[in-house]
Amino acid sequence: MTKEKFIIDSSTVLKFIQIYCDDKHKDATKLYETLQLNYLNENLDEKLEYHLCSTCKETFVYSYQRLKECPHDEKPRCRKCPNPCYEKTQWKKLATIMRYGGIQLGLNKIKKIFIK
Ligand SMILES: [Zn+2]
Prior knowledge:
By secondary structure, this protein is α+β, with helices and mostly antiparallel strands. The chain is built from 4 helices and 2 strands; from the N terminus they run H-E-E-H-H-H. A hairpin with a 2-residue loop joins strand 1 and strand 2 (42-52). Residues 21, 25, 28, 52-53, 55-56 line the site of zinc ion.
């Protein structure tokens, strides 16, 4: 996939996880952190800032790693992927988060990239 697509997909995932964490884990201890995006061994001119609890951070880092290693030039919708890279439990977790965020934002278009 292109760098631009990688940046968009990474920030989309983060946006959804952030919404979920803000709503569901209001009382959890959270840290402000920044992730320097890196794709194909190149540091991109793009940083993502987040404020997540440790569980959501783990989910985000996991998703980011999977995205980074996605072997497809044109990333298919994950559900249609011939060789899905997510572990089942992680996938379920993220699907729940994306569905929740999709409802909050009403952005079905984005939700489809990951869920349908
Ligand atoms: Zn959280």
